[in-house]
Amino acid sequence: MTTTLQPSVRPAPAGRATPHKVLAKAGLYVFLLANAAFVTYLFNAAGVGSNKLVNFGRLTGLYGALAMAFQLLLVARLPWLDRRLGMDKLTSWHRWVGFTIFWMLVGHLTFIAFGNAGDSGPIAEIIRQATELEGILRALVAWTIIMVVGVVSARFARRRMAYETWHFIHLYTYIAIFLAFTHQVAVGSTFRKSALATGYWWGLWAFALGSVVIGRLVLPFWRNWRHQFRVAAVVPEAHNVVSVYIEGKDLDRLGAKAGQFFLWRFLTKDRWWQANPFSLSAAPNGKYLRLTAKALGEGSADVRNIKVGTRVFAEGPYGAFTTMHQTKPNALLVAGGVGVTPIRALLEEIKGHVVVLYRVSDPKEAVLLHELEGLARAKGAVLRLVTGSSKTITANGPLLGPDNIAALVPDVEDRDVFICGPNGMTDAVVRSLSELGVPSNQIHAERFALAN
Prior knowledge:
This protein has helices at 20-45, 52-75, 79-116, 122-132, 136-153, 155-158, 163-170, 172-187, 189-193, 195-227, 298-301, 340-349, 369-379, 402-408, 423-435, and strands spanning 2-5, 230-238, 241-247, 261-266, 276-279, 289-294, 312-318, 330-336, 354-360, 382-387, 393-394, 397-398, 415-420, 443-444. By secondary structure, it is of the alpha/beta class. Helix 12 links the parallel strand 8 and strand 9.
């Protein structure tokens, strides 16, 4: 069933194109390919030996080192990249680059060991190099760490492991990268062959590590020192939902946008070590930031017990789920469950005529519904509460099937669509939109995953 608030439609403003994502993706591709080409040039300039297996081993090692540096750039949480691609896209790249590193290092060790083995065999050759050559033992430790991280990151293992355990193991990658770098400095013939090669590799690693230091340490600490975040109010929204208002200094200069999220640390003795990702549930107004949390886990359930005046360490804002990527003058916002929080914030900020589909099983579960109704009236938007079980079939088919979406929003092809909700709901809506012919650049469905 559906409930509709539908005032008169106002004229929509002119459309505009946004090349931000294209520019960011192109920048990453150009950076990676240009560096791969230069690494290949340096490899050839250093001299190629007659042993083809050793040559392949050296080259895969160099590509693996380049991939490690690129990986650091992806996890640095640099605002320019994050606002254009979003954490979910960067995390997807992070995953594929991680497996590239895994196989490059497998090839590096295998080709080098077999290429130098002779009559003694590859295992004996590995043991000989580890005991006789500087830097080899460090390389083997780094190799082992990367192998372990690669195995536990495979889907079959990841599904069977608690996130905290996986994350803790994943952090050892930083140790592996440091050990791999010292190995390259100690025995890398290409690294030491010329001043150009040495300067290039030092510069690449400095850029990659500097990006991590700036994005993960300098910017968060500077922002928190500057803005001095504190809890201003804790307001119950329902029996299992609470909104937290965060005040601070110069919030109008924070640069946060509706649809973005922060990693929030409430600095009490029991919670200071725990960071929870919550989207802004109201558009930033320069006076306060608001998050709304539902009791889904231990961390979010405990938010209602936070005291007014508690200091807050906030990392962010993160995410590309913003009006920055709107390409059409009008929009469709689709919310499900706790995904209503960034949708509610977007409704407050987005321009043009807006339709909101709010998917809940039962109307009683529609958190922030009264706020959505008020915003819809004020903005001349259409709000439709779509209720029923996942098995509900309407006269137009499944609730979020293509025919029903087309019936609810006849001009959906001419709108940007912003989707936030459970993965199953998001996947269903994206499939339906694709069947309806909505161009992919008009579909914005950021999944809030973090590259570690």
